[in-house]
């Protein structure tokens, strides 16, 4: 139940035997379900993500259409080597990321439930559900935790995805070789290049991600006559819309992050800074202006809808049945 300006938790008397709806799961079950959900989503979205990263990073070379990028990727590299290059790292990363996201979100939600219940100063008052703002806060915390896993994984993933654009040797770049060269040249800290932009994207974006999902779900739970009555479709729609709002709101930050993480591959020997604001200024100053920050948005919208719908749907179904 959401808390508005005229309503507080202590104003809502509920019987003592009613417990908060926030559900506790065994940690192993929670991690496993999150990992499976993340893997399903990643397998669906990865080919689209490859094209998205290449479109974002090709700002360093020249503007290219989505269709031309798809066509040239397939013709020059084939299906698996082109669209699924670098899958291993993000597939493992997706398992870790989604596990951390849902586990951290549920942990933060539990803390907030207990905090709000304590503020009621009476055992006869309980939170039937978290206020909307607290769900967003829990989502932001989950995004912060996931950022430290995502940064090195996405660094290698992005570099592998664009490696074929800058190298004539299609097999020269591998997951292991990029990790070794990064550590050799920049140390362990080099694997966290782009951390600040990833944290920005994940804290704000994941807050919006979980917030959108919970908001739409709450609507269907409370609506007397919802326009979609099938519960499975409701879950899929809620997940799809969460993905749409996340990507629409955070896409410019994601573009800057991709350019930071692939800067060295397109600008060998360049002394130009690859910081957040320097990359942002560089992209805005190029021909196309602000449109450069949204290069690849179209294909991102196409990939995020089924991927996020399946992540949330599989998580809820697995949680319900296992």
TrEMBL record:
Record key words, sorted: Membrane, Repeat, Transmembrane, Transmembrane helix, Transport
One GO term (biological process): mitochondrial L-ornithine transmembrane transport
Pfam families named among the record's database cross-references: Mito_carr
One GO CC term, this protein: membrane
The name this protein goes by in its record: ORT1
Solcar repeat residue intervals: 25-111, 130-219, 230-321
Gene Ontology MF term list: L-ornithine transmembrane transporter activity
Family: Belongs to the mitochondrial carrier (TC 2.A.29) family.
Domain of life: Eukaryota
């Amino acid at each position: 139940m959401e808390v508005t300006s005229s309503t507080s938790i202590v104003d809502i008397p509920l019987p003592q035997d009613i417990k908060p709806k926030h559900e506790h799961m065994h940690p192993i079950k929670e991690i496993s379900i999150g990992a499976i959900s993340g893997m399903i989503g990643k397998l669906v979205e990865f080919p689209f993500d490859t094209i998205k990263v290449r479109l974002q990073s090709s700002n360093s070379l020249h503007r290219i259409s989505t269709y031309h990028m798809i066509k040239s990727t397939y013709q020059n590299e084939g299906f698996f080597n082109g669209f699924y290059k670098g899958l291993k790292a993000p597939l493992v990363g997706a398992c870790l990321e989604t596990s951390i996201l849902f586990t951290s979100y549920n942990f933060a939600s539990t803390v907030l439930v207990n905090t709000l219940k304590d503020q009621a100063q009476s055992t006869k008052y309980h939170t039937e559900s978290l206020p909307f703002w607290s769900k967003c806060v829990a989502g932001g915390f989950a995004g912060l935790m996931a950022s430290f896993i995502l940064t090195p994984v996405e660094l290698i993933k992005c570099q592998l995805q664009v490696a074929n654009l800058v190298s004539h040797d299609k097999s020269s770049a591998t997951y292991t070789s990029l990790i070794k060269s990064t550590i050799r040249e920049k140390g362990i800290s080099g694997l966290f290049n782009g951390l600040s932009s990833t944290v920005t994207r994940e804290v704000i974006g994941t807050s919006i991600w979980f917030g959108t999902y919970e908001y739409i779900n709450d609507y269907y739970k409370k609506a007397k006559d919802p326009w979609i009555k099938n519960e499975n479709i409701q879950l899929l729609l809620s997940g799809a819309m969460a993905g749409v709002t996340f990507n629409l709101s955070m896409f410019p930050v994601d573009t800057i992050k991709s350019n930071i993480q692939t800067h060295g591959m397109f600008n060998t020997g360049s002394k130009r800074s690859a910081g957040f604001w320097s990359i942002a200024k560089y992209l805005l100053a190029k021909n196309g202006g602000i449109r450069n920050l949204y290069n690849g948005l179209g294909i991102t919208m196409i990939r995020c809808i089924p991927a996020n719908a399946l992540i949330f749907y599989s998580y809820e179904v697995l949680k319900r049945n296992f």
